[in-house]
Amino acid sequence: MEYEPVIGLEVHVQLNTESKIFCGCSTKFGSDSNTQTCPVCLGLPGVLPVLNEEVLKKGILAGLAINAKIASYSKFDRKNYFYPDLPKAYQISQYDKPICEDGYIEIPVKNGLKKIGIKRLHLEEDAGKSIHSETPGNNFSFVDLNRTGVPLAEIVSEPELGSGDEAYEYLQKIKTIMKYIDVSDVNMEEGSLRCDVNVSVREKGAVKFGEKVEIKNLNSFKSVRASINYEIERQIRMIESGEKIVQETRLWDADSNETYSMRSKEDAHDYRYFPDPDLAPIILAPEYIEEIKKTLPELPDAKLRRFVDEYSLPEYDSSVLTSVKQLADYFEETVKLGANPKKASNWIMSELLARITNPEEIKSFHASPGMLAKLLALIEDGTISGKIAKTVFEEMTATGKGPEQIIDEKGLKQVSDTGEIDSMIDAVLKNNQKSVDDFKNGKENAFKFLVGQVMKESKGKANPILVNDLLLKKISG
């Protein structure tokens, strides 16, 4: 029997506002525990939440970027449950009237692009963080409430993902889009991007979904992919052995590469949602949404297509260059300053990306777009060879000096004087008569060897085109 998995993701994106969603406390990461709290986010008696408008704007911007419909009417609800890191014993979220619905993004698959529906994007406050003692014998838990009230946008996909790889690509696209529009730093290590996975398996072609299993505790995109692949195989094994799959929440153990049960359906929460009486509904005028829409930058998919059409770049080059907005900006600036698009792309993807850890920090990279454009121009006009250019680029990235200054200081200018190159060729031919004879007898590699010897004689500075031309004429003559 053939099976097909049905996968949906719930992605929590922390919005990068300076203050929390309903109070003025800082959202800065890494501060001492419980130093960024106030009566509002602690839920003390007599306080009232006030919606941070910047959270609303960023939530709308995120919705527009994922092609969602922005609701003219939405509201906040109380999601009731008890947990030590939830001081009010409820979370302010959105239930039946979210700010955004019916969106989609496209992800790359083997046969092109696949459209993945997004059911909703809603706004909510984050909970705090429980910290468990790691000291043997001390079974204590502590609570850090700095994160309480930090604004989140929860993005819920339709169950339309078909593999761990597709889920991985979906997350990458969400992350890239959120970065492009600057609503979040989507840093999984700092908790500003979190993901829960829902997986079920059914007979191929069946209409009815299989029993859904939720996976939590996923701290990387690789963990998401690996946990989904494991869970698919686990559920298929259970079906084929006649076991019943129960709806449950499971956790991912990255050390053993397995999921394990956390709680069953019977233990699931009844959140008893009801409208938050302290917060008025959100009613948006079309003009307000339109003003936010005007701030939407060119998104990664549109930029990729434009790079292919406008610069005649291969799809692969364009996908690499547009994966990070700062990298795309660097490329375009280099081209605007006169560089050939394909050559600029080649240098950025090979030489530049090999020397930079985080492309988002490319503004602090010593070799500016202007310097790279000048370097490519010096290769084009024959001042230096491509090989020497790599040495120059290395020096540029280390010192911040311009290519012309480095070439002058290190004496790297390409030798294009035919007389000088002739002398080098004569010396090489005199000392390598056997290779000359081998070439005349049809051994092509012998000629390459002779070219290499001339380049060695010139310390790599001879114009390779002239070397090839003059050497062939001398041997043939």
Could you please describe the fold and organization of this structure?
The chain is an alpha+beta fold and 477 residues long. The chain folds into three domains: 3-290, no CATH class; 300-410, no CATH class; 418-476, Arc Repressor Mutant, subunit A (Orthogonal Bundle), CATH 1.10.10. It has helices at residues 39-42, 53-65, 164-180, 221-240, 286-293, 300-311, 315-321, 325-336, 341-352, 369-380, 386-399, 403-410, 418-431, 433-440, 444-457, 464-476, and strands spanning 3-14, 69-70, 73-74, 77-80, 90-93, 100-109, 112-125, 129-132, 141-144, 151-157, 193-203, 213-218, 248-253, 258-264, 274-275, 282-283. The strands form four sheets. The chain has a nine-stranded mixed sheet. A three-stranded antiparallel sheet has the order 5-4-15, with no helix packed on it. A two-stranded antiparallel sheet has the order 3-16. Helix 4 links the parallel strand 12 and strand 13.
What oligomeric arrangement do these chains adopt?
single chain
**What's the number of extended β-strand segments?**
16
Average predicted confidence as pLDDT: 92
Structural class: alpha+beta
Low-confidence stretches: none
- The number of domains is 3
Global morphology: elongated
The spatial strand order of the largest sheet comes to: 2-6-7-10-1-11-12-13-14
Q: What percent of residues adopt helix (DSSP H or I)?
A: 25-40%
Question: What Rg is obtained from the alpha carbons, in whole angstroms?
Answer: 30 Å
Strand count, sense and closure of the main sheet?
9 strands, mixed
Give the termini distance in whole angstroms.
74 Å
The count of helical stretches stands at 16
What amount of the residues lies in strands? 15-25%
